Each structure stands twice: as C-alpha cells, then as structure tokens.
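Q: I have 138 residues here and want to know how they pack in 3D. Can you give me a structure?
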Amino acid sequence: MKLEIRPAALDDTPFILKSWAEFYAHSAYAKQMPQKSFFNGHKKLIKKCLEYAPCLVVCDSKDPSFLQGFCVMENMPEKDVLHFIFVRHGLRGKGIGKELIKRMAKHEELSYSHQGDIKSLWGQWKTKVYDPYLFLGR
C-alpha cells in the first residue's frame, strides 16, 4: 500500500474522533470518570480543537478515505502545540509519525496537550512542556 499525507477533510472527522477518543480512553485521566462521560465530553473537545488546529491525515493513495493515521498540531508564534498524533498499530515504527511531525513542526519548543507514547518523536524540539489546558480552547 502506498501512503499519502494530505490535509484532513470533513469526511475524516469520524475516524479522527473515534481513534483519538478510544486511544486516550486508556489514560489515567480518562479512567477516573465514567466511560460514557469521557467519550461524550472528549469528543466535543476534539471537535472544537479541529475547528482551529490544523490536521494532516495519512491515507492509502488509491483510496483516500482509508485512513492510517493523523496529526493535530498548531504552530503558535513561539512554539508548536501537539494535540494528538495517531498511527494505526500495524504501521507504527515505520517513520509515519516522524514524517507527520516533520511536515507540521516549525519551532524548537513544544507544548503537548495529551500525554502518550510520543517520546520517540521528540527529536525535533529542544524543549517539551505538557500543558493540557492548551486543548481546552479558544
């Protein structure tokens, strides 16, 4: 399968919502509340985030609707803000996440709003700061 990276389209939103929420549902944060409350609340916040934060998706070049991953990142004046990055399990470790970061990152400082297994992607930035409030909005 040949992959292509493109800006997210409206039709990609269900995949992004489901993948992001299901992945983060295993976090310590999410496990502290009822599952239904987490999914309803977090999906609303993700939708809001997608209104202002750029998103790139990875798809099959022959079938652009078959998504393999995505990255949601803002470039603030002084830093990059990584909200979430996801690559399907079978494609992890193949440089797809790094390519998404390479295409989106602009600064040496990173703030990230969701914790996860992203340390392998941190080479791009000199400083990294966890700040979940950046996700809560505009």
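Q: Anything worth noting?
A: Strands lie at 3-7, 55-60, 63-75, 80-87, 109-112, 127-130. The chain has a mean pLDDT of 92.
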